[in-house]
Predict the structure.
Amino acid sequence: MYTIQTIDLKFQQVEETIASFLIQGEGKPVLIETGPHSTWIQLKFSLQHLGYQPKDLAAVLLTHIHFDHAGAAWEFAKAGVKVYLHPKGLEHLSNPERLWNSAAKIYGNEQMDTLWGPMESIDQSLLVPVEDKEQVLIEDLTFIPIHSPGHASHHIAWQLDDMIFTGDVGGVKINDGPVVPPCPPPDIDIEAWKASVAKILDRQPKGLYLTHFGKIINPKEHLDQLIEILDDWARWIKKRFDNKDQVDDITPEFMKYTAKQLESKGADKNLQKLYELANPSWMSVGGLLRYWKLKKENRL
């Protein structure tokens, strides 16, 4: 038997935008997602409240290496805890300079510390790359990593029995709002994303755990809605891409479009702000424009 504890990392002092998940079985607990280092104090406090120090964990499992999911992984490695991840993520966590520089291009250097905090290198001896659908036994728990590109090439959804921790491939859903797809550059691939969703549904999960944010009890309905909005956003951007519109013109239009979309689905202004914090709409413009550029060049 085991329990799954959702830990609210209170990103930017706001509730229910980024989660970690603590699985407590018969042995040492396992943490899925660390969140960014900017929420490290909150995560450590939450673990202490549950009776654990970082060194007490059996392992950390990452869905992918973006800062809001893996930014504090080095703190656990510093405490001797092994970090399980996609093979493509290993070099970036052992030497995060390239990852940092890539993120800085999106957010700007002045925002990096405020949003994410520092990221230090992890010794490769503490990084454990896992293959697709490989059985990963940790203490008394068996996890199945599902390689699931589309949002990121180094993405994994983690299955534990009939539950799947989806990272970002399962979308963003805050409170009672709709599900939306996070589409930052540089790895967005619509076809791969759809294939990953089909792969997850083939596992017949009874529930999904979203990093942004919480448990979903209707997996097929949720993921069907995700694909619908993913297609909608991609079509909207494609029209502007074909028109050769400038990014500076597209971005404010898209932000208005997605805000109206949220509003039409019952999200008030406060909830819309939470969505923007968890999944800034401006960020998806760059990701989807790059997707269409690569498609045009036959590179996807």
The chain has one domain: 3-225. The chain has a mean pLDDT of 97. The CA atoms of residues 239 and 245 lie 9 Å apart.
